[in-house]
Write a structure and sequence with these properties.
single chain, Beta-galactosidase, Chain A, domain 5, Glutathione S-transferase Yfyf (Class Pi), Chain A, domain 2, 7-stranded antiparallel β-sheet, 33 strands, peptide-N4-(N-acetyl-beta-glucosaminyl)asparagine amidase activity, calcium, GH-type_carb-bd, carbohydrate binding, 6-hairpin_glycosidase_sf
Amino acid sequence: MSGKAAKTAKFHVDEVSMMIGTDGSHETEYGGTTPAVGTPFAMTQWCAATRINGISRTMYRHCDSVLIGFMGTHQPAIWMGDYGFMTLMPQSGELKIKAKDRQVRLDRGKEVAKPYYYKVSYASGKHGGSEITTEMTATSRASFFHVTYPKDEKALLYLEAGRENEGGFIRIYPDKREVHIYNKERHDAHLGPALPGFKGYYVLKFSQDFADYGTWRDGAVSGKSVQAEGGSVGGYVEFPAGTTWVDVRIGSSFIDFEQAAVNLSKEIPARSSFASVTKKVKKEWEEKLSKIDLEGASEEDRTIFYTAFFRTLQYPREFSEYGRYYSPFDDKVHQGVSYNAYSLWDTFRAEHPWLQIMAPERVDDMVTALVQMYEEGGWIPKWPNPTYTNIMIGTHADAVIADAYVNGFRDYDVEKAYEAIRKDAYVPPTGDDKSRWGDREWWNGGYEARGGLTNYLKNGYVADDKTNESVARTLEFALSDYCIAQMAKALGKTADYEDLMRRAKNYRYLYNPKTKLFQARNADGSWAGEHSGFTEGANWTYQFCVMQDVQGLIDLMGGDESFAAALDNVFDNGHYRHDNEPGHHYVYLYNYCGRFDKAQERIPEILDTHYRNGADGLSGNDDCGQMSAWYLFSSLGFYPVTPASGEYALGIPRFPSARVELPQGKVLTVRAEGLKEHKHLPVILFNGKKLDAPFIDIRDLMKGGVLEFKAE
């Protein structure tokens, strides 16, 4: 902890720094966050744009010096694409269409960014001029812009409906002060099935009359034109001379224009003022962020903590619209609730367990959404954006669903959910014996699911000469098998349970006792290359990826002392990469080999090294809340190492005291006595009773009480 302890702020939401994670030295491997505005889990976010976004390129980066507009966006992470988006840009004087022409200098001193509000002032035009001030706030499916124009210049609003390929559509209704836009683009379209019915719809309603208007296509402007459609297409609106301000309310939808208007009327009614909507959105964030109060934390730590908390409440995003939703899995509109943007390879580890505590009212619906994707598309997706993308490996929805079930979330079709994850475990994808399943392969009409499952079922491991990333797949399949087994056991499916628990030990087939590392094998059983078969890492990165059977791994590696020494080697010799998820549980493995003291020493080091208050303050992509969730759990002193186990591993709190509001009105107080004086606080009491081991049952903790950490 740094600096003096801070007094509790009036609003936790104002302690959030929207800029943490928006920059870094690498083009893609930084936090990848944006200062996007919206309510928790917003369907459509609204963000200032400093660059043209795309796969591996978000629309905002802190090191950029220009502003090119404001976007309605659905891009969930830097290495995923956007879809169904739109851009607007208040301008004065002369209409400018191309990004390089319309860009203005971005003065950070004139920028205000909050979860509920964004404001920036800029001189219109490349060479300066009078200032325009744009303010925006947003709900889940709607936004509100308040634009202040210089009174002595022409007041314009640039609108972009499409950029290229599928493009978009714009229709201007001057008499109604409305503009309708839809965008058909999906940056990740090549990774998933065609969706002829997909569109992101927007209805824009203005407070002022239109003095002029028109459309543009491929940069060519058509004055007084009310409609345009195509690849690079958009329009503009000019307001009457002397206009000094304009309010624009925008509703978004994936269903149709009518639903976009309904969403707008429900979330930002015509009678709303900009100030009232901003206040409402701020209140919604504050209600969430005030669930945790910290005592004895520095201002620096408070900023990092509440920023991380904010980031965990953005994904998965809402995808339903007041009782209906468009499904990108069968290209149809359905009744019900839905979510999207599940970064499952990352978020099964800590983000989804965190939501069980901080957003329990959404967990059942998030599981329901996954089950619906299975029903509508045939498989639960690995990374829906918004449909199948075949990005990453494994089927970690298995862990998310089983973990939710084990921890008491049951308000969804349980049998259908089990059917879906069981299919992951037992049914190879079409063409499994003919494809190597390269990551991000172009869509060929089939979903990958567990690529390599054919050989996994036959040999107990994914064969390296048959399937890419074979070691990582084997380890992750085995973990998922364990998770499904826990749900099978609870549902009385004994045969499945016994078979899946046997498979949960398949990691043993790839353990090389000579190197004490996991190594790929070919279909004939021979060892493959030492560094072959891994995903976003190497053999050191995956050395301890056996969360489901830690004791079994300890035995393989020669017992507690050898295991602890191997962990030391990973941390002391640069093999631990906190900026990538496979190792996120590593530090807590010390708990299993009798070296809880080592865990308590290293956790603060990780927190100090990888989380800072600054644009480059987050190592590695936040990955839809996973990096942030790790910080939050570890700061509070406990962490979910093994999904579906019903257990937290304990660590060491970062703050002397924290009060956490739990589901069903319960309260957990975490206290750390002597935190400044001692590296180790090995004595742990829960509700006055000393714990025998550094673990605690999740259901016990969720009943509330006092968790105390003390020195000997």
